[in-house]
Design brief:
alpha+beta; OB fold (Dihydrolipoamide Acetyltransferase, E2P); Helicase, Ruva Protein, domain 3; seven-stranded mixed β-sheet
Length: 217
């Protein structure tokens, strides 16, 4: 199975034995607690590990989705990791540059906190928040802060500025799907609306999307 190859110890160096795949687009066949299966148009089924914060935002089974992908190779076995947003993948790559952090711990961190909260905790050197992650002790938290606090600061600012509330997005998308929108159209419409304004409630987001749809007709 062709996959993007990046060594865990040095995620910036792809291995020439593996073709580079930065995204996978296809139909969601199914999901488990930490992974999904995606069927591409070429008939290839990819098993992709995803954090809980991504799993909670996936479309219904059978829907088309696109994942930003990253592969970590351990003992010559590649494992593919997927994210919905570029900022999520960028944060995963940063976490994997820390010697004490492997893919399991990185995914645990990104399952405990969304990218916005995790990036902010690192930038603000918030040890009490970081040690809430299962398997992450004070020593590892200190190492993460030492190596990433400065590097993640720009990413944290970008995530804070660009990423709308994921719960609000999910609720609005779900409501629009129930009104007859496809998942893809619903998600795109919600994100377009939330780029231009801040909404106090999910209902306001939905009204804005429906209003825009009415104006476009």
């Amino acid at each position: 199975m062709p996959r993007l190859h990046r060594k865990a110890a040095d995620p910036g160096e792809p291995d020439g034995d593996h073709p580079v795949i930065s995204r996978i687009r296809g139909d969601l066949l199914g999901s488990d607690i930490d992974r999904v299966e995606v069927l591409t148009s070429g008939g290839v089924v990819y098993e992709v590990h995803v954090p809980l914060t991504v799993l909670q935002r996936l479309p219904p089974k059978g829907s088309t989705l696109e994942l930003r992908t990253e592969t970590v190779v351990r003992d010559e076995v590649p494992s593919l990791y997927g994210f919905l947003e570029e900022n999520e993948r960028a944060l995963f790559r940063l976490l994997m540059t820390v010697q004490m952090v492997g893919p399991r711990l990185a995914m645990s961190m990104m399952s405990t906190y969304d990218a916005r909260r995790l990036a902010r905790a690192l930038a603000e050197k918030d040890v009490p928040v970081l040690v809430q992650v299962s398997g992450l002790g004070k020593k590892t938290a200190a190492r993460l802060i030492l190596e990433l606090a400065d590097k993640v600061r720009n990413l944290a600012a970008a995530v804070e500025g660009d990423a709308p509330d994921t719960t609000q997005v999910a609720e609005a998308v779900s409501a629009l799907v129930s009104l007859g929108y496809s998942f893809t159209d619903a998600e795109a419409s919600v994100r377009d609306a939330m780029k231009d304004a801040t909404f106090e409630s999910t209902e306001e987001v939905i009204r804005e999307v429906l209003s825009r749809r009415g104006r476009d007709r």
